[in-house]
Design goal:
The chain is of the alpha+beta class and about 120 residues long. Helices cover about 50% and strands about 15% of the residues. The radius of gyration is 27 Å and the shape is elongated.
Length: about 120
């Protein structure tokens, strides 16, 4: 499938030109986000190009990048727990165990109904 993007770029006050690109290879070979736009629109000032990309970068940061950070935290935390789980039996000659699939928290949250006065 070919990638087709349509972008509105304001070149002058009140004048809008619609650009349509179907160049999959150029989009895939971008060195950085916006490289393709910078090459396709040499007359448009760089601050204007950056302004055009603001919303897509905010969407990327709030959706994709935050999910990547969350998953990497889960993977890192799981690996740390696995190392602790494997550490205790070796150190204590099998006397102490730590099962990371169970909680070892002693804290309990008391949820009793309180009377309304």
């Amino acid at each position: 499938a070919r990638i087709a993007n349509i972008m509105h770029v304001q070149r002058a006050a009140g004048a809008t030109k619609m650009l349509s690109f179907e160049q999959e290879e150029d989009l895939e070979n971008e060195e950085f986000y916006g490289d393709f736009l910078e090459r396709m629109l040499p007359n448009v000032p760089l601050p204007r190009l950056m302004e055009e990309q603001t919303i897509s970068m905010r969407l990327y940061e709030s959706r994709t990048a935050s999910l990547q950070r969350l998953v990497s935290f889960f993977v890192m935390f799981h690996a740390m727990g696995k190392r602790v789980q494997d550490f205790w039996p070796a150190v204590s000659l099998g006397m102490l165990r730590y099962d990371m699939s169970r909680t070892h928290s002693i804290m309990r949250i008391a949820t009793t109904a309180s009377p309304v006065s």
